[in-house]
Write a structure and sequence with these properties.
Elements (H helix, E strand, L loop, with lengths): L1 H16 L3 H4 L12 H32 L1 H12 L8 H15 L6 E10 L5 E17 L1 H13 L3 E8 L7 E12 L5 H7 L1
Antiparallel strand pairs: 1-2, 2-4, 3-4
Helix pairs in contact: 1-3, 3-4
């Protein structure tokens, strides 16, 4: 693409800068193809500034990658290409989904927090292509039917239920619960271990 732009740049340069007055100014004083000299000059300046930006763009991208690292460049590239949905943040998307599911079963103000963890094999080898988004739900004013319904929703959605802790005061139907669920996602977050492995 840059080769084609460079060829156009050379052609355009000769068209604008190599023309004599008798070539692009007609006898009646109107400009090249009926355009005034001022408009031609303005077009030439805009053209040259555009060419300069195009010529500098690879260097700008390289400098961006050098300053921020390949992970930032990858994230920027994915966003530009429209990968994923929303803000291209599977952790935020999952957290929002869990909060919505809590509200659907009757918890109007869910206390939901999230974190991202790397995955390791049994021999402690880092899995490079995937990570876990882990969401913790704290329920203070719950009951067994709603909590059971929420767990059923999580199961239907194919989530990993990592932890479930429920408690209730004596002779009370009111339950408190802490539920930890996880979802497997493509690698997106440069943890310290991931940075080391990719360097």
């Amino acid at each position: 693409m840059l080769g084609s732009i460079a060829a156009l740049a050379v052609f355009g340069y000769f068209q604008f800068s190599g023309s004599d007055d008798d070539i692009y100014v007609s006898e009646g004083g109107s400009g090249f193809f009926g355009v005034s000299r001022e408009e031609v000059e303005m077009a030439r300046e805009n053209y040259e500034s555009t060419v300069e930006v195009v010529v500098e763009s690879p260097r700008t991208v390289q400098e961006f990658a050098r300053l921020t690292g390949d992970d930032s460049l990858r994230s920027f590239k994915d966003k530009e290409e429209g990968a994923g949905s929303g803000n291209n943040r599977p952790d935020l998307e999952f957290q929002k989904d869990v909060a919505d599911w809590c509200r659907e079963v009757g918890f109007p103000s869910p206390d939901v927090s999230k974190k991202v963890e790397d995955i390791r094999t049994k021999d402690n080898k880092l899995v490079m292509d995937y990570q876990l988004v882990i969401v913790t739900i704290n329920i203070r004013d719950g009951d067994l039917p709603r909590i059971a319904q929420l767990l059923k929703v999580f199961e239907q959605r194919g989530l990993i239920i990592q932890e479930l802790d429920m408690s209730a005061p004596n002779d009370s139907e009111e339950l408190s619960a802490m539920i930890v669920v996880a979802r497997l996602v493509d690698y997106f977050y440069p943890t310290r271990d991931q940075k080391r492995a990719r360097s």
